[in-house]
Design a protein that fits this description.
The protein has 911 residues and is of the alpha/beta class. The two termini are 28 Å apart. This is Malto-oligosyltrehalose synthase.
Length: 911
């Protein structure tokens, strides 16, 4: 029987051929013991061959064979439900893969074969009114060169059919690429045959300039799907909804809703189609942005929570030193805003040129269709559109054709236009007003009564041939412009900010994160409480997260990086030592901005005593792959399409040298030891806050222990579940009596971390010693250096697992205090800004279900520690479920609660 469809918590699994449905079944006992309520699966529909993520769907009517097929999914759902676990599935409504071979996507194959006569002609965002309508940029050279070389041929191939069979038919072949042939043209000479198709084979570089189907961002191999069409929506969602109706799927996560023509309508359609279910959406909100209340969903996937939770453990006071270090080493005097603007201009003029060009052509056609607008030139329209896209400060405004633009959404476009005006010529300002009006769907932006017959004859105006052939009247064209402008804003923002500027402006990369802002460092306790109170009031069942398959760094890497803001002076010393040790390697073409990126990456992934992930520093293989991706995403000196081998080798050589150099190791070890107490507080504090704050917390696979992963594909590496099972069993076995919460592993003295492990050489901590029995980490031996804060002797992995399991179990025991409208969030007062505390309770209940207490910025407490600082607890008696320690209510010394761990989770003693 399916559990409550609204989760109390979720656990994300990344499914692929190496981790199938049956592999997931094998971990369900662990997830149940951990305390999660729902298994959260990455996309389960049939994806392109070899897919490691599932977002490249090729068949919506079929569960992935690589994952185990429908039978495998049914086994997973049944096994999960038998353990009281629900199942949440990731849905990809925005796009489908353009696979190799292409016939694996039956719908796209048929469109390329039959064009407008295909029953799937409305599936894809492409104009099929003309010949060679769909550009296929797959050739290694210009088509004339490929034809001369004989690399394009016609062959007989076996092609799959929709009913699961196969048929032999003639196809066009170019190496691994296979394309259909329009019926009746198969006997033509190759040149004429290619000209007779519904598609056009082209050099791969042509795609960025002339691509004429809407893509997922700038990925040519992901073609957008028109789910705004009722038939397409039903066909692409039928299987998932049927599984939901059977009770096998309990909720959905919606991928990239900003790419949809009408997100609000999509969510409404999904709720109607499913009869109502828990749905969260991958919406990336800016810090001052709220999810539109009209969206019929439970909330976001949690990047807004990530921003606030991580920000609590950052110290804005440390920025002055980090600024000085950044400017001195990088030589970059520009603020992040300037770097972002430059990246946006690059994006719209290169990788998204085709999308901007299409918007411009539509605007030209609208103006050509109305004599009142005809004097707006293509140049003016192009500049106004481009500048408005550049000045957008969020992923999109939510406006819909046929509906008056909501004032707050109109304001987004109007304010962007105000920022654009100083950068446009005088003759472009009224054109900008026109573009804003078109984007808002305002009347008066074309003659509402005019039809397609008013468009100029073919050859007498840009793109009017295809537009006239579509018989598209002016109103429809304005509606399309409105939709497409909104759909283009997201890719411009994502590709320029997350995938370019985040890799260029490296002052403090701990905030260069999805949903975060590099200029926004540090969140106050009041700011955190305000955010949580707002969530409770507006989106109480939203998802919260700290790590996802899309985050640039795991939560624990960011927790380590946050200490740079607490210890900026010590970090500056570390960087100085690293630079001195690598002086001979630091020459052209290496740049200072990337160098600082390397040092921060090493600091976040260096060895970390007490953790399996940090037993050794990041491997050379992982580091090289990550830095290659980072450099190419930055697009400063090297790119994916035009890599600069000399530059890449120089950067990687620097990083790999640091992995093996004793002086570099000593500098990084010393910094790691110095910040160990704060890292511990950050790792445990972030986890406890996210798991007990308003919303539905998601735990990304393996992150119940310390995880030092970087951006994908690094965060999709194999998870050692045996280690996690054994460690959890060890923690549970220490309970004094059945049902008693296990205390944390013992320290040498209560509240005092034990010395660091013995080093093989000065400043080089030894690996964490082997536990004498499963699940029980051995205490660390004595440090060889005096006067420097030492890492904790207890296993940080065990402590994080303790916090995670106890918080998740508590949520499952008291769901109404944590989930949905029935729950309340109550800030708890403390006399120190270094403690953040709140209570969770059932709405209107006098007794609280739990009180969360976490330490932030502990380095600033000084030698006196908590001293006489207090927390104002409700009256009564409590117990810390993490340690078993009894706690009296009322004014209570923080030192009495946080003497053993930097976090506490209190429940009524009677519980």
């Amino acid at each position: 029987m399916s559990p409550n469809p609204t989760p109390t918590s979720t656990y994300r699994l990344q499914l692929h051929a190496g981790f199938t449905f049956d592999d997931a079944v094998a971990q369900l006992d662990h997830l149940a013991a951990l305390g999660v309520s729902h298994v959260f699966c990455s996309p389960i529909l049939q994806a392109a061959p070899g897919s490691m993520h599932g977002y490249d769907v090729v068949d919506h009517s079929h569960i992935s064979d690589e994952l185990g097929g429908e039978a495998g999914f049914r086994r997973l759902a049944a096994a999960a439900h038998a353990r009281g676990l629900g199942v949440v599935v990731d849905v990809v409504p925005n796009h489908m893969a353009v696979p190799t071979p292409l016939f694996l996507n039956h719908e796209l194959w048929e469109v390329l074969k039959q064009g407008s006569d295909s029953p799937f002609a409305r599936w894809f965002d492409v104009d099929l009114t003309g010949s060679q309508a769909i550009l296929m940029p797959v050739l290694g050279n210009r088509i004339g060169q490929e034809l001369e070389a004989g690399t394009i041929s016609v062959e007989e191939r076996e092609v799959p059919t929709a009913d699961g069979g196969t048929v032999v038919e003639p196809v066009v072949v170019h190496f691994d690429h296979v394309f259909p042939i329009r019926p009746g043209t198969e006997d033509l000479p190759i040149e004429k045959l290619l000209e007779a198709q519904w598609y056009r084979l082209a050099h791969w570089k042509v795609g960025s300039e002339e691509l004429n189907y809407r893509r997922f961002f700038d990925v040519d191999t992901l073609a957008a799907v028109r789910v705004e069409d009722d038939g397409v929506f039903e066909a692409t969602h039928r299987l998932l909804v049927e599984l939901h109706e059977e009770g096998l799927i309990d909720g959905f996560r919606i991928d990239h809703p900003d790419g949809l023509a009408n997100p609000r309508q999509y969510f409404a359609d999904l709720q109607a189609f499913t009869g109502g279910c828990w749905v969260v959406v991958e919406k990336i909100l800016e810090a001052d942005e709220a999810l539109p209340e009209l969206f019929d969903c439970a909330g976001t996937t949690g990047y807004d929570a990530l921003l606030r939770v991580s920000g609590l453990f950052q110290d804005a006071a440390g920025l002055s030193r980090l600024n000085a270090l950044w400017e001195r080493v990088s030589g970059v005097g520009e603020w992040f805003g300037s770097v972002l603007m430059q990246a946006k201009h690059e994006v719209i003029s290169s990788m998204l040129f085709a999308e901007v060009n299409r918007l411009t052509s539509m605007a030209v056609a609208i103006c050509d269709g109305d004599i009142r607008l005809r004097d707006h030139t293509r140049r003016q329209l192009r500049n106004a559109i481009g500048r408005l896209l550049v000045e957008m400060d969020r992923y999109r405004a939510y406006v819909e054709p046929g509906m008056a633009a909501p004032e707050q959404e109109r304001a987004v476009l109007v304010e962007a236009a105000d920022r654009a005006r100083p950068n446009l010529a005088a003759d472009e300002l009224d054109t900008l007003d026109l573009i804003v009006a078109l984007a808002c769907g305002d009347p008066g932006t074309g003659d509402e009564e005019q039809g397609a017959e008013t468009l100029p004859e073919p050859g007498h105006g840009p793109v009017t041939t295809e537009l006239r052939d579509q018989a598209m009247d002016t109103r429809e064209l304005r509606a399309e412009f409105m939709v497409r402008f909104a759909q283009t804003c997201g890719p411009v923002m994502a590709k320029s900010k997350e995938d370019t500027a985040f890799y260029r402006w490296n002052r403090f990369i701990g905030v260069n994160e999805v949903g975060s802002e590099p200029t926004m460092v540090g969140i106050t306790t009041d700011g955190f409480h305000d955010f949580c109170s707002a969530l409770t009031a507006t989106w109480p069942s939203t998802m919260t997260t700290l790590s996802t398959h899309d985050t640039k760094r795991s939560a624990d890497v960011r927790a380590r990086l946050s200490t740079l803001t607490e210890y900026p002076k010590e970090w500056e010393v570390c960087v100085t030592e690293l630079r001195a040790a690598t002086d001979e390697l630091r020459s052209d073409p290496l740049d200072g901005a990337t160098e600082l990126f390397v040092w921060q990456t090493l600091a976040g992934t260096w060895r970390l005593p007490g953790t399996a992930a940090g037993e050794e520093p990041i491997s050379a293989e992982r580091l090289s792959a990550y830095l290659t991706k980072a450099m190419r995403e930055a697009k400063w000196h090297t790119t994916w399409t035009e890599p600069d081998a000399a530059y890449e080798e120089a950067v990687i050589a620097l990083a790999l040298h640091a992995l093996d150099d004793e002086a570099c190791a000593a500098a990084l070890d010393t910094f790691t030891e110095t910040v160990a107490g704060s890292v511990r507080a950050n790792v445990l504090g972030q986890a406890l806050l996210q798991l007990t704050m308003p919303g539905v917390p998601d735990t990304y696979q393996g992150c119940e222990l310390v995880d030092l992963s970087l951006v994908d594909p690094d965060n999709r590496r194999e998870v050692d579940y045996r280690l996690r099972r054994d460690l959890l069993a060890g923690l549970d076995s220490t309970a004094d009596r059945p049902g008693h919460r296990a205390p944390a592993p013992t320290a040498d003295r209560p509240g005092h971390p034990a010395p660091a492990p013995t080093a093989d050489r000065p400043g080089h901590p030894a690996p964490v010693p082997t536990a004498d029995r499963p699940g029980r980490p051995a205490p660390a031996p004595t440090a060889d250096r005096v006067g420097r804060p030492a890492p904790v002797s207890r296993s940080l992995d065990a402590e994080k697992l303790l916090v995670t399991s106890r918080a998740l179990r508590l949520r499952s025991e008291h769901p109404d205090a944590f989930r949905g409208d029935s729950s309340e969030y109550r800030p708890v007062a403390t006399t120190s800004g270094h403690a953040v505390a709140f209570a969770r309770a059932r709405a209107g209940a006098e007794e609280v279900a739990a009180i969360t207490v976490a330490t932030r910025l502990p380095s600033q407490l000084g030698e006196q520690g908590w001293a006489e600082h207090r927390i104002i607890l409700p009256d009564g008696q409590f117990r810390d479920v993490l340690t078993g320690q009894p706690v009296s209510g009322g004014e209570t010394r923080l030192a009495d609660i946080l003497g053993d761990l930097p976090v506490a989770l209190l429940v009524p003693a009677s519980a």
